[in-house]
Amino acid sequence: MSFYHQLLAGSVCLLLACKGALADEQNISNHFSGFASIGLVSNDNSDLIFRRDLSQDLGSHDGDIEWRNDTLLGLQWQTQWSYQFETTAQLIIKDRFNNSLKESIEWAFARYRPIDGVDIRVGRLGTDIFMLSDYRQVTYALPWVRPPHDTYGLLSFYQFDGIDVNKRFDLKDSTLNIKAFYAQVDRKYPITTRAGNNYRLLFEGGGASINWELSEWKLRYSYADVQAQNNNSSVLTDALSAISPIWPDASSIAENFLTRGKHFKYNQLGMTYDNNQWWLQTEATHLASEVPVISSSRQFYISIGRRIEAFTLYAIRGYAQTTRAPMSITLPSGYPPEIAKKINGLAYISEQALNRTRANQHSVGIGVRWDFASKMALKIQTDKFTIDQYGDGLWIRANTNHLSQKQTANVISVSLDVLF
Fold first, then answer.
1. Relative to the CA of 222, which of 154, 182, 229, 332 has its CA 20 to 30 Å away?
2. How many CA atoms lie within 13 A of 383 on its CB side?
3. Which CATH number fits domain 32-71+143-419: 3.90.245.10, 3.40.50.2000, 2.40.160.40, 3.30.300.30?
4. Entry pTM
5. How confident is the model at residue 197 (pLDDT cuts 50, 70, 90)?
């Protein structure tokens, strides 16, 4: 039985279980809400294009002002059929590489509460493995213009199709939530700007999270283990396979691009403190990859802020670091000039492709938020990024050449965020 057939069968069972509860309830409530952001961003680096995260294939560079990176509209419809059963749908309109209706449906799930403190959800769910999982796109709920780029630029899984189960424990003065999930994710990631080139990844797997809240404090740990279900065929891998009879090393190089059956393990640890005047948030993540073309990496950020009446002043520091050394392909010798030229060309392109996903950068930023009206906020933020030579995986290159040296980028952002 396929994953989707299992999911459909689970949904039917869930609805049947809710039938009795629905029949006894006469009061059905509907709630419509929405959120929107209008953002502008400018990046002064002429070689690298700044984007909000890996799902986008355009952005600002060389001082251009770009409005599509941080501009979005979200609409949400929630129906409470009974105390035990509710449905939720959320549609988000924004710029993304794969901008189909299917991708725009952020949430579409049914929630069933068999007993108090236990929630079962089935359908399209938000990816709940981050500190900002529930509201990372509701930017009004964030102190910053966008989630920290060093961490959330890479963690661009916004939703999955599957099931999760959450158990809440009320512990004297605190609350503990333990959640487990099983999911399938199908995503396309752009390789270059607006060229249509993409890298598709189909994942299936599960994970769990623990959330503990006590007064001003919140602690969270998440774990996920997913397996890639596909390989990406490309001109490069086809060429490596074709030339392997005369260049045996080509076969082992091509295997570095194969993802099917490979596991990706993810760990996350975060903390928030907020006493309504001062707030502090920090988060550390680690991605362990079994395939070189998708780099294993660590991410971290820490941010502190101070509220002064309608204003919030904040600072943020972060980094992303690939945990393996750059790949290097040794050029073979002893071939005729024409064959040697082709092999050397393939070796160069392969080396560049294997190092393309490396994200080695650090950043520092400051900003101010002004809550000038009810459910409306204006934010201004400036960030300075330092990107290593083989570390621009979160950016798009303005040309196809690799970076010859360390780069810096100054990014200025302005956004207007509203709830309705």
1. 229
2. 28
3. 2.40.160.40
4. 0.88
5. confident
